[in-house]
Design goal:
With 90 residues, the chain is mainly α. The protein is built from four helices and no strands. Helix 1 (4-20) runs antiparallel to helix 2 (22-39) and helix 1 (4-20) packs across helix 3. It is globular.
Length: 90
């Protein structure tokens, strides 16, 4: 997938926001991004401006993206879904 990291950032921010609030979620997303840049040899085209866009645009996004979206994302990037045992997927 060409947008795998962008979608991962979107998922992380929305889940961090629910847990910690938008300000801390933004800080945690920037930390994740810096870690990706530092430790990923085949780093893709995700940029700092993409992270800022996600934070700015989705700060007031009040809907939860849901387990189905996360499960579909995990499967599309070739990973076993973390939602396989989630009650909402039954």
């Amino acid at each position: 997938l060409t947008d795998g990291r962008h979608r991962a950032a979107f998922i992380l921010f929305n889940n961090f926001k629910r847990e910690f609030g938008p300000e801390i979620a933004g800080e945690k997303l920037h930390q994740w991004f810096q870690h990706q840049k530092q430790y990923t040899e085949t780093y893709t085209t995700l940029k700092e401006s993409d992270i800022d866009y996600i934070i700015n645009y989705y700060t007031n996004y009040n809907s939860y993206i849901g387990c189905k979206y996360i499960k579909d994302y995990m499967i599309s990037v070739g990973k076993r879904s973390v939602c396989d045992t989630c009650p909402c997927m039954k």
